[in-house]
Amino acid sequence: MLSPELPPLPALTRAEAEFIDCYLEVLDQVGRINPAHGGDTYGALRAAQALASRATALRDALALMHDRGESRLHAGTLTRTLRLLDGERRAGRTALPPASGS
Questions:
Q1: Where do the domains of the chain lie?
Q2: How far is CA 80 from the centre of its chain?
Q3: CB within 8 A of 18, min separation 6: which ones?
Q4: How far apart (Å, rounded) are the C-alpha atoms in residues 26 and 101?
Q5: By three-state DSSP, how is residue 49 classified?
Q6: Rounded distance, CA 95 to CA 84, Å?
Q7: Could you write out the DSSP letters of every residue in 5-48?
Q8: pTM of the model
Q9: What is the pLDDT of residues 69-97, one digit of tens each?
Q10: Which domain of life is it from (predicted)?
């Protein structure tokens, strides 16, 4: 059985693509650290260590965009890209779960 073909990603500059990739990696690490999702301290420690390097890469991607004269973040295009790359689920891991009861 063939899986359905995913829609193509919007056209991005190389720097925008790097920015999106790094942003999602930061979200993934913050989601792994999130104490509301339980887990163990070693896993959270490893994610925190990875977060530092991924945040540096995110900063570098944004600096490159700025240096190249890319002065605007095109929210519509970048939002579509994030949605296609499962950004909503990944960002959801950084939030608190809904309150139960009362």
A1: 18-91
A2: 13
A3: 57, 61, 64
A4: 32
A5: helix
A6: 20
A7: PPPPPPP--HHHHHHHHHHHHHHHHHHHH-GGG---HHHHHHHH
A8: 0.86
A9: 999 999 999 999 999 999 999 999 999 98
A10: Bacteria
